[in-house]
C-alpha cells in the first residue's frame, strides 16, 4: 500500500512543479510519474536519459566519471591515467570503495590517482608529448602494472589531442596494452554514456586479445559482470557461486584484473548484476562468442533464491542440486535475521534515489525486512531500467528520474518516509530534517550488501539507522518546554 | 541507416536494440519470418518501425544488422 492514492500523488507532483517557469515545468513533468503496474512500457509514463535542465540541482556525473570512476577504475592491476587537469581525478579518487586484494603502489593501483595535470601550456600546445612521457615514467616507477588506460577529461576532446596515436606507440614499445578511452566529460547527458564508451573501449582494445589461445576451461565457468565490489560485494557474491559448484573466472570490474577480462570470452555464462553499466559488453559477448548473459539480483534472500535457481537452470543437475543445498544451508541464518529485525522494521517506509541497478534491485531486500519502498528513481537510468522497475514497485508509488534537489526535498517532506536511501549529497539535508538516511552508493562505509552475508549487514545497518536515539532529540530542550504547542501544530 | 542488434528475448519473442541511442524495445512483428527469407519491416512495441534487408533466417541470435528507420523518430 502506498501512502497516497494515485490522485493524491498526481496532485503532489503538480504541486511540486508549481514553482518552475512554464517551460521547465513542462520538461520536468515528463520525468515524474506515479507508478502503474499495468503499464508495460515505461516510456508511456516516464522520460529518462535526457539532458538535465540548466539551473536545477542534479546529482549526475559526467562520462569521465562513468568510465574512469565506474568501469575502468576498479581494474586493479592497470594504471588509469586521468588525462587532463588534476581535479577530475583527485576529487573522485578512491571514493567508490571498490575493495581489492593486492599491494597498492606495487602490483595494484586502485586507490591511487595518476594524472597528467594539464597546465595552460598543455592546452595551448597540446598534451600528447606529456602523455607519452607520463606513460614512460609510469613504466619506470611501477613496472608491475599490467596495462594502462588513458581516461580523457574534457579538455582532451576540446583541443583535439591524438591519444590513440600516443597509446598505440606506447603499447608497441612497452608490449603492454595501452587503452585510449574517449570519455570526455561533456559527452552525453550523464555518466551513462561513459559506461557505454568504456564498454566499447574494452571491446575494441582488450576483449579479443586472447582469442584462439588455449584455455583450460570447465563446463561451469562463469563471469561476474557489473559488480564493483563496493565494500566487498563481489566477494559475497562469488562465495555463493563457488559453493554452488561454479567456477568464477572473472570479476568485472571490482577486484578485477586485465587477465580476467581477457579470459571472459571463454566462460559459459555471464552473470550481469549492474545492467546499466555493463549490458553493452554483455550483448557484444553474446553476439560474438555466443555467451548468454543473465541478469540477477543478490539483494535479500527472496531475490537471491530466485536468482540462484535461475543461474542453476543454465547448468546440469549437479549444480541444481548444490544450489538447493546452498539455499537450504543459509535459510536458517536468514530466518534468524528476519526474526530479529522484521519486528523492528516492519511497516517502515523508504524512499530511494540512487543510480545503476539499486533503485530496483534493493526493493526486494527491504521487503524481506517488512519495509516498503514508496518512491524510487534513477540518476541516469534509461527506459529499459524503468521497464524493469515498474513491476517491482507498488502501485501508485512515486517514480522520479534525474530528480532535482528541490523536488526530492519536497517529495520527502510530503510523503514523510521513515528513511531515505541516497548519497552523501542528500544525507545531511535529510538528516537535518529528522529523517534517517543510509547512503546507498557507498553502503555508508559499511557493506557488503550482496549475497546472504551481505543481507545480514544490510538488515543490521537499516536497524541502526532507524533506531538511533538521536531522532528523538530533534527538538532542542529549550524549545520542548516553551514551544511544545507550536511544535505540535507545526508537526 | 543505423546499426541495430536483434536478440532472443528472455520470455520468447525478439528484442531490438539500437546501441547508438541505447534503445531497447521488443519487436511486435517481423514482415518475413521464414527460413529462407527473414527480415523486412520490424514493428516495435514503442511505436517505431525499422526496415532490415531480408536475409536467410540467421542460425543464431543475437545478430547485428543495418536498419533503416521508417517514419519519425520515436523516443
Ligand atoms: S565534466 Fe569534464 S572537467 Fe568535469 S569532472 Fe568530468 S571530465 Fe572533468
Automatic annotation (TrEMBL), chain A:
CC terms in the record's Gene Ontology section: molybdenum-iron nitrogenase complex
Cofactor(s) recorded in Swiss-Prot or TrEMBL: [7Fe-Mo-9S-C-homocitryl] cluster; [8Fe-7S] cluster
Highest taxon in the source lineage: Bacteria
Catalytic activity: N2 + 8 reduced [2Fe-2S]-[ferredoxin] + 16 ATP + 16 H2O = H2 + 8 oxidized [2Fe-2S]-[ferredoxin] + 2 NH4(+) + 16 ADP + 16 phosphate + 6 H(+)
Record InterPro entries: Nase/OxRdtase_comp1, Nase_comp1_asu, Nase_comp1_CS, Nase_Mo-Fe_asu
UniProt keyword ATP-binding present: yes
Annotated Pfam families: Oxidored_nitro
Free-text function comment from the UniProt entry: This molybdenum-iron protein is part of the nitrogenase complex that catalyzes the key enzymatic reactions in nitrogen fixation.
Protein's name according to its UniProt entry: Nitrogenase protein alpha chain
Organism the protein comes from: Denitromonas iodatirespirans
Name of encoding gene: nifD
From TrEMBL, chain B:
InterPro entries: NifT (IPR009727), NifT/FixU_barrel-like_dom_sf (IPR024044)
Protein name: Nitrogen fixation protein NifT
Organism: Denitromonas iodatirespirans
Pfam families for the chain: NifT
GO biological process: nitrogen fixation
